[in-house]
């Protein structure tokens, strides 16, 4: 799997996770979305990173990890900005809400989610490495060969 494919999968997975999370928020009539959005971010990041490790048979190298982190963070910030808009109020209310997010929430969200994304990418690599080390010999598709 390539890094662009990883980024596309993350974007789709994270968007679907957020849509499902907001349906849960509406269903349970809960107004707090911080935990739900962070759980969607964690689940999406772990899923696509473990998929990358499984398909490639290795963990991320440093360059790939940094590329994935930067792309995931950019996608996260864009989606956080979109979720800030409710599309219910007037255009002036939505612009004011977006300005408030850009003034204070953007820095906090970028910092906190940046740390979370990096941590989950790192953990996915560690888990994949341990699974590959613990895999029985010959499980990588090699057939038993008699000399």
Task: Give an account of the 3D structure.
The chain is mainly alpha-helical and 147 residues long. The protein has one domain (3-133). The protein is 79% helix and 0% strand. It has helices at residues 3-28, 34-56, 62-84, 91-134. Helix 1 packs antiparallel against helix 2 (34-56) and helix 3 runs antiparallel to helix 4. The chain is elongated, with a radius of gyration of 19 Å. The two termini are 34 Å apart. 18% of the residues are buried.
User: For the terminal residues, how far apart are their CA atoms?
Assistant: 34 Å
Number of strands: 0
Helix fraction, binned, reads over 70%
Compressed to H and E, one letter per element, the order equals HHHH
Beta-strand residue fraction: under 5%
Q: Radius of gyration in whole Å, from Cα? A: 19 Å
The number of distinct structural domains comes to 1
**Based on CA inertia axes, which overall geometry fits?**
elongated
What class, by secondary structure content? mainly alpha
Number of continuous helical runs: 4
The mean pLDDT is 80
State the low-pLDDT regions, or none: 141-147
Characterize the biggest β-sheet: none
């Amino acid at each position: 799997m390539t890094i662009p494919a990883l980024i596309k999968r993350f974007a789709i997975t994270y968007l679907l996770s957020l849509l499902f999370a907001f349906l849960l928020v509406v269903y349970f009539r809960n107004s707090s979305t911080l935990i739900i959005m962070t759980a969607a971010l964690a689940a999406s990041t772990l899923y696509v990173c473990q998929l990358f490790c499984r398909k490639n048979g290795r963990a991320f190298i440093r360059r790939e990890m940094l590329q994935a982190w930067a792309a995931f963070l950019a996608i996260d910030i864009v989606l956080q900005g979109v979720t800030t808009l409710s599309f219910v109020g007037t255009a002036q209310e939505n612009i004011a809400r977006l300005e408030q997010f850009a003034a204070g929430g953007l820095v906090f969200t970028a910092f906190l989610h940046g740390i979370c994304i990096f941590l989950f990418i790192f953990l996915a690599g560690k888990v994949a490495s341990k699974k590959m080390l613990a895999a029985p010999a010959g499980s990588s598709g090699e057939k038993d060969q008699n000399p």
